Amino acid sequence: MKIGIIGFGAIGFDVAKKLDNELDQFNVIGVHSRTKNKIIKKTKSFNLPLNYLDLDEICKICDLVIDCAPKEAFREIVQKCFSYKTKLITVSGAGILENLQLVNKARHHSTQIFLASGAIIGLDGLSAISEGDVNFVKMITKKPPNALIKSKFVLENNINLENLNEPKLIFSGNAFEGAKAFPANVNVAAAVGLAGVGAKKTQLEIWADPNLSKNTHSILAQSDSSNFKIEIENIQSEENPGTGKITALSVIASLRGIMSSLKVGT
Q1: Domain of residue 25, residue span
Q2: 108 noted as active-site residue
Q3: For 124-173, how does the pLDDT look when each residue is reduced to its tens digit (9 = 90+)?
Q4: Rounded distance, CA 117 to CA 124, Å?
Q5: Does residue 64 lie in a domain region?
Q6: Which one, out of 26, 247, 256, 263, has a CA that is 20 to 30 A from the CA of 157?
Q7: In this structure, are 47 and 110 located in the same domain?
């Protein structure tokens, strides 16, 4: 399987580095990014330096591309994949929510879109209970201020996160609204909504908490088949504090699931 990577920030680089260490299993053809020089510089230490490809070319020659780009690029990436019947793994739950009508046409273009679990766990449980009757799903995200201080919603609403000495609630609504307000920070909320009862029916709170050093998420679900609470503490990425290290690893896990003869879990 020929694999391409789109986007070379914190997530894209970590994915590429992991795949580079397993060249016997993965055939990475190249990378597309808005910053070509960054690719050349950051892959000098790789076992196999990656080629830069433009968006059309990478979608054309690859069997599968991994989307690690900002949400704004999602629609164009999907359309290119449809043109060449290329499979797509993405971490952009927010991009999917904003383009559901387009995403739902994947079958007509003989391809598939896979949303990696990213910084969240338990999506299999949410999918399972949603086959029955669900009373509610609520997600509470708490992050250190450094993970939220540059987010779109915080900047546009002039929310001051400097010198906090106690947790501060900065958003309360549903996962659909939250994913739009924090496209680079809470793709996890979009994933929870998509896996479960829907983003508009999923309650969401986002807190800035100066007492934390990790990005944390809690999911509470109640249904006619199972009640559960999931607690997650993710180590921040060195390059981007708003992203957890587990996000890139979830992409690799998704890729293995697609390629493997045995896939465990829904």
Answers
A1: 2-119+246-259
A2: no
A3: 999 999 999 999 999 999 999 988 988 889 999 999 998 889 999 999 99
A4: 10
A5: yes
A6: 247
A7: yes
Q: Taking 80 as the threshold, does the pLDDT of residue 191 lie above it?
A: yes
Question: Side by side, which strands form the sheet with 64-67?
Answer: 51-52, 27-32, 2-6, 64-67, 87-90, 113-115
260 burial class (0-12, 13-18, 19+ CB within 10 angstroms)?
exposed
157 inside domain: yes
Cβ-contact 31, 40 below 8 angstroms: no
pLDDT digits (tens, 9 = 90+) for 4-31: 999 998 899 999 999 998 888 899 999 9
Q: Other C-beta atoms within 10 Å of 6: how many? A: 27
Catalytic residue among 32, 108, 109, 217: 217
Residue pair 178/94 in contact (Cβ under 8 Å)? The answer is: no
